[in-house]
Amino acid sequence: MKFAHLSDIHLGAFSDRSLRDLSFDAFSYSVEKCIENDVDFVLISGDFFHNPVPDMSISRDAAEKLKEFKDRGIKVFTIYGSHDYSPLSASMIDIFEKAGLISKVQRLDGKKLLPLVDKDLNISLYGIDARKNGLDQETWRSIEEIEKPPNGTIPIILMHLAIRELLPYDLFMIEALNISDLPKGMKYYALGHIHFPGYYELDGSPVVQPGALFGSDLSDLENTAKGVKRGFYIVDTDNMKPEFIEVNIAPIILMKINLDNKHASSAYDEVMRNLGKIEKESVVLLHLEGNLSGGKQSDLQIHRIKRYIIENGARTVIHNQSQLKFPESQKAKFTGSIEEIERKILEEKISSSKIKALSVDSSLELLNILSIQKEDGERDSDYKERLSKLAMKILGVDESD
């Protein structure tokens, strides 16, 4: 018997349409490889979606791919990742479970962890759902007992959290469990959350972290360009040896242009000098860095640079100038990604405000509500009421008031 282990798929993560499509292509390719390899079931250890209630088009496409599994009798099991879970409303994972496309694994009876037993597959699955702000680790530490699996079944646990021994060097300071904190007696430990692949063993059993399937942000794409492998694992239960299946959907090229002591208007010429051959359908990550001697944002001619790169074969260009410094009098107040700029602006405004009712995270949640699209056939009044209810939950307002 064989199973596939995926994690951190993050469907719907990117605002750039090309990247969003590539993210889905990575999942679609993975489904095809699972079917080709005759897997009997699939484990997804969290963050199937980037948002708990993604755009309907993303949900529809994901449902179609999951139905390919269902039509072939391949069962899919999952836990919430920190991005799947919403304290305010049902997530798309809940809807998919109701539709019979997926099964959530976590079973808790007070402080006792129970298995989801599938007699047809002869497996006992245990799961710990993720929460925001490390609350999943609190859940894990609060468990006092784990019910034994039925005799003859294969015990497997799914967890969406960081394990110290599997962290890359630059993430070593984040909160994490130690490998010794994991429960003994499992035949396979299916991890998620950290976007780097990793492997360890606990008493001879694999502790496996597939990493992100494609990625969810610019940092992930940079790491892919630097050589981090993306993919998932297929495991034969006869020997429990994971085989890594690489998912390489498009070339990702990191191009760093140093503009130290140059005028902003020199950016175009510097890019032309350093460009080289552009791989067809590649994703180009254009980083502009250094301390400029003069010029303003419009002098960089970013649109002209992007147009040239795309006309010469690239699928899309993502530019980052967070490390580019303008002269003090002209420097942009905030730099970085859109999400980083939003957070910085909110932090500044909230810290200077006399009203301290909302945290930065709550404010960002309110902003995210504005990105929720109206569903097909939904009336305007129902759409507005749905958003209003979500906003009131964030604000802690009782609808009866």
Give keywords.
six-stranded mixed β-sheet; 401 residues; 29% helix
Give a short overview:
By secondary structure, the chain is α/β, with parallel strands linked by helices.
Detailed description of the structure:
The chain is of the alpha/beta class and about 400 residues long. About 30% of the residues lie in helices and about 20% in strands. The strands form 4 sheets. It has a 6-stranded mixed β-sheet with strand order 4-3-2-1-14-15. Helix 1 runs parallel beside helix 2. The longest helix is centred in the first third of the chain and has 20 residues. The N and C termini lie far apart (about 55 Å).
Set out the fold topology.
Blueprint: E1 2-6, H1 17-36, E2 41-44, H2 56-71, E3 75-78, H3 92-98, E4 103-104, E5 108-109, E6 112-113, E7 116-118, E8 123-128, H4 135-142, E9 145-146, E10 154-160, E11 188-192, E12 198-202, E13 205-209, H5 218-225, E14 231-236, E15 241-246, E16 252-258, H6 267-274, E17 283-291, H7 302-311, E18 316-325, H8 338-352, H9 360-369, H10 380-395
Parallel strand pairs: 1-2, 2-3, 3-4, 6-9, 8-10, 10-11, 11-13, 16-17, 17-18
Antiparallel strand pairs: 1-14, 5-6, 7-8, 12-13, 14-15
Helix pairs in contact: 1-2, 8-9, 9-10
